[in-house]
Amino acid sequence: MLATHELSRLCERLGLSAEARAIIDSIRSSPPARRVRSAAGNVSVRYPSRKMGVTIQAESHHVELAALYEYEHDPRTLEFYDQPPPIKLVYQAKCGRQVGVWHTPDYFVVRSDAAGWEEWKNEAGLERLAATMPNRYGRDETGHWRCPPGERLAEPFGLCYRLRSSADIDWVFQRNLRFLEDYLALEPTVIDEHSADILRLVLDQPGLPLDELIEQLGNPSVDDIYPLIASNRIYVDLHAAPLAEPERVRVFRDADVARAYALVGMQEPANGDLSAEAHGRLARASPADLREANRRHAIVSPYLVGMPIVQTTTPARTIRDWLARWRAAERIDGCGFIGLLPRLSESGNRLRKLPEATLALMDGFLDGDYETLKQKRKFTVYAALVRACEERGVAAPSYKTFARAANRRPRQEQIAKRQGPRAATQAAPFYWELSLTTPRHGDRPFELGHLDHTQLDVELVCSRTGRNLGRPWATFLSDAFSRRLLAVCLTFDPPSYRACMLALRECVRRHQRLPETVVVDGGPEFESVYFETLLARYGCAKKTRPAARPRFGSVCERLFGTTNTRFVHTLAGNTQLVRLRGKVTKGVDPKGQACWTLGALATRLCEWAYADNGHSGASPTTMTSACSRCRPLRRARPSFSPAAASGSIASTTGRTCSSIPKPRGHRCRSAMTRSMRASPTRSSKSAGCGASLSTTLVSPADRNGRSNWPAPSCGVDSSVTASICGSRRANWRTFWRRWKPKRWSSNSACGTPRPEACSSRSSAVLDSTRA
Predict the structure, then answer these.
(1) pLDDT tens-digit profile of 250-308?
(2) What is the pLDDT of residues 11-45, one digit of tens each?
(3) What is the pLDDT of residues 541-562, one digit of tens each?
(4) How far is the C-alpha of 47 from the C-alpha of 517, rounded, in Å?
(5) Please, where are the H alpha helices in 108-220?
(6) Cβ-contact 299, 319 below 8 angstroms
(7) Is 505 left (phi over 0), alpha (psi -120 to 50) or beta?
(8) In 205-275, which residue ranges form alpha helices assigned H by DSSP?
């Protein structure tokens, strides 16, 4: 961020007025105008910016997040602020009436040559908005998108207003920026022996593919190559090919050598010369069409290469026709094989034969009578259609035609009209990623981690008294790329920020690092100040998936189902019978069959979860080790916040580098303290299992990265459970000293248990974990 005197010099150099300087000062000193949410299918992001020293909001993990990566690594961008105060845009509506709307741009950006607001939109969305609001959104003569009302507002102050489109994003460059993000934050180091060997090899073999360079150097040198690329000591065109595909990446000593070799023709060949129509025909071809085309090619190939003709039962006229199609497709589409594909789908009269009046009447009944919340059956609507056709004197369709027309309509829209939008989510079509963006599940392990909770389908008991304690909650942190379980945390507490932080600590204990991005749902535990501060302190971005869209969290949701079906449902006391309502007797009730304790279940669950029990084709461990040969795992990442060096940390919701505010309500009882010291502390008065997380954040002077963060004991160890149980007993002792009831009754109306019963329950949990 710029200092005050640096900003003053920049404003003088740009010729900004006093009013413009006041606007910039107001934006810099104010928090975001609104907190972005995940709604309407978007995934909001909290991105920890090293350049700004605070977390920056992005309303979408595609367009707006790509803008943040561009700002973060653009040397011309000095500062950028999310959700600046709203501005009023005045323009003429499509109907001719003048309107004024309050508009909150996505970002306010201060560059070395300009300053102003920027709004990012999807290209398809801009096309729709331009049709409905032509005076607000439109293209200029060069084809770039513009917002005339915003430009008129910014022009008097000497500022700018830019409308940016997703079509302007270089997705290969974005993918490489995310791949090199950790290395870009490192300070250039002195060339050591390994780096000297890499530079010597690149100098001797210009244009060497990256996979061959890795193979010649060996796996230990993978993490020595990428820092050299990030610091421009060896040159790779980050706009040409993704680093995650090293066979397509060529390495040079510098940019001048790369340009020289490009001029003499050493370029990666283009990805085929097929026309768009040829690609479409290949994509639409069925397996039977491809088998027939291969059979035809085997017959005509001797004629094409001049080999001896093989006797065949195919008529000579048919072979001549195939050869003519091959040559025509080779001339038009660039591939003769396209001409051998059968064209049976284009034959015959496929037009509808019913009269137009009947088709219009049938569509009207489907819209107004079938696709409604009444959920009428097809036959009922068809009977009404037949009566309407008889009254109007038009031909009535058959029931088979009517049912086929109803089933042919978009399934998701139909269910949304009959049952509501939430029910229609399950019928959403499979999402095909046809556009070149960043991979949905990342390029490597530890890039994306999914964190979520579930209540396991098993009843647990106390190890000392045998009393039923209910169903436990499990918190899973899973890797999206390899589907490997990174951390498992088992507690009796419902989902809370304490369970989230326990899972993160267990991940660091096992793997000595945290994921770069954590994907969560919209639960209140993920909005905790402590949880967001922990992620921001260690440079982890947080993505929040939209509500009521379980497919966005399919990585973790599928894992929950696998855990229940393959592990929990094999245990005594599992709750599968509970689904049979009204048929469960006392003799088969899962609560009576329960025999597992929390400690025993936690031990067995961790043994099962950390083994190769993935639900993908390859095992998660094998996939992780295979990817590490050309994709770095990067055990530690440097801290980014300059404010943390003095013992404070940037706020996750504002823009000032201030220490963490004291939380309100029950959060005051957490073991996390405002001082954010790192030494293990004594458990505070926090009720519930898993509530006493006794390790807090550190300053960079004491901890150099993620690898040194955790305490020696974490996760579901007995020491954690011991502190939990000790906290519970301390709470009961405090309650007993304050109120001192005269008499305790196990048969009282309120059902208050005796204090010694609760103490024995806590001791039972402690003993079960020790066992």
Answers:
(1) 998 888 778 767 755 543 433 445 677 777 777 777 878 888 888 888 888 888 877 76
(2) 999 999 899 999 999 999 999 999 888 876 788 89
(3) 999 888 767 677 778 788 888 8
(4) 9
(5) 123-132, 148-154, 171-179, 181-184, 193-204, 210-217
(6) yes
(7) alpha
(8) 210-217, 222-230, 255-263
